Every structure is written in C-alpha cells, then in structure tokens.
Fold this sequence. Notes:
binds phosphoric acid mono(formamide)ester, alpha/beta, single chain, 11 helices, four-stranded parallel beta sheet, globular, 9 strands
Amino acid sequence: MQHDAFFHWRHKDLLDVDQLTREELFHLLDTAANMHEINERPVKKAPVLKGKSIVLFFAEPSTRTKTSFDMAGKRLSADTFALAKSGSSLQKGESLRDTALTLQAMNPDVIVLRHSSSGAARFLAEHLRCGVVNAGDGWHAHPTQALLDVFSLRRVWGDDFAGKTLLILGDAAHSRVCRSNVPLLHSLGVNVRLCAPRTLLPAGVENWPAEVFTDLRRAVAGVDAVMCLRLQLERQQAGLLPDLREYSKRFCLAPRHMELAAPGARILHPGPFLRGLDLSSELADSPQAIILNQVAAGVAVRMAVLFLLATRQDATPNGEC
Ligand code: CP
C-alpha cells in the first residue's frame, strides 16, 4: 500500500467534515483510493493495523456503516468488537459517558459511535483519550457518508468538482447526510440544490449555501448528479406529510425527471432507500445509479479513516490527547 508517510494527521477524532482542511480532505481521499485498490485484490488484507483494537458502538440500527467499519478494520488486520444498544448496559440505565469510560478502560485505539442524539460523538471525544469516529449522530452529522459520497463522485468527475451542480432531493430536514454533504460539496465548488416539500426543508435553510426548490422539475434541470434522501418516517412528527402517495407523485425521482438533467448525470443515495418513495425502481437499478459503488467506497473510506486515526502520532510526548 502506498502512503505519504510524511503527512502529519493531527486529528484524534472525526466528528464532522468541517474539521478537515482541503489538504487533509484530499489526503484522506487519496488514502481511501489506495484502500480501494486493496479491496479489489483476491486477498483483501493489509497488516497496517495489526495489534489495534476498534470498538463499533452502534446505539441505532445500521447495515452499511456498521458492516463497512467492521470490514474496514478487519481488512487492515485490526481487531474489531461490536456493541449494540440492545444487549449493552445502556439498557440497564448506564449513562453514555459511563459506558464509554468502561469501553476506554479496555484500551481500544478507536471507538466508532452511532447514536440518536446530536452531539453524542463530540461528547465522547471530549471525555476519551482514544479516537472517536462519528458514524451518525441524530440529525447532526454523518461525516464518513459525506466523504464516501465525495469519493464516489471523484471517481466519476475526477477532481473537477468546481462548477458541477448536484441536487439533494427529499427529506433534508431529518438528514444528517445532507448536513454533512452540503458544506463539503460547497467547499469543493459544487453548486448545491435542495428540493423537498416545505415541511421537510431544514429550519434556517435560507442561510445554507444551497439553492432551494419545492418543484422537482425545476430543481433537476441541468444537474450533474442527484442525491436522493430517504424519507425518515421514524424521525418525523405526525402531520409533516399528510399523504405519502402525493409525496411519491411530486418528489420520487423517476426517469421523466432524469431526462431534464445533464447528459450522463448520476444518481446517488446513502441508503437504505425506499423504492417508489425516494426514487423509482427503474432508476435505482439503472446504470445511472452509483448507489452500490457508494457502498464499496464506504469500505475504502472507512479503512482510510481508521488507518489515519489509529496510526496518528500523538501531539505530546506522553501520549495525552
Ligand atoms: N447510509 C447509512 O448510514 O446506512 P446505514 O444506516 O445502513 O448504516
């Protein structure tokens, strides 16, 4: 595996994308590209994290993020340990802080946390010596998802992000994926559009670096990519969407919409996706969709994140963070 051994990775934790400079972002993406190459070998294994321990603490359901972090750690020869909310002592009333301190006493190198409370990962990072990765906290942030989305777009667009237009379509109000992607894509020079019913637009969206639409046909015109979002029915208050059929008619991405996009426009979705609500089955299974490429990119990006955090040289001589 090629790696720039002279790059000093200064972050103990990955809490959101706004902590990364442009140079750090591209170092991470280049490291992920090296990891992607490992993932395409017949023997998908490198010894670089041998002896490191990674705890996967998922207090909310996950298929992609949890499995890909687990696979990422194992492919780099780390030992991974999974803990879910059900079956943990959180269910007996132990606080998140005490659970985290208990895990830290076992001396892991990195804890990956998914939690329903916004700010949970930052809270842990402030209390623990080991690295903390935010694998999704409430509505707040999902940095590794945004990084894998940019990694996936880079494989299509190269480094020509500036001037591209990307539409984020759907339930932006409840989406941590959207909250991490908008600033990251904007920082790369992408023109970001958002389209949703008014009730599913985030509060304060007028201050976001994005053009806002409620009409999908206008929003999709000329775009280079569409990122569909899942309708997060489990997080919604009653009354935000009175009629799912009406939502599907107005906001489910269908071939007739993609005819208005730029030629070769791609379709992304962080998953899990709801066929017929977030996007049509026809598009989900079409060559325009790079949804499964995003899943593969997730393993590579998470390998890069674990590698950078777990091999980081501590800033102080006694190893205190
Ligand atoms: N995109 C994403 O976070 O998916 P999971 O909930 O399956 O991890």
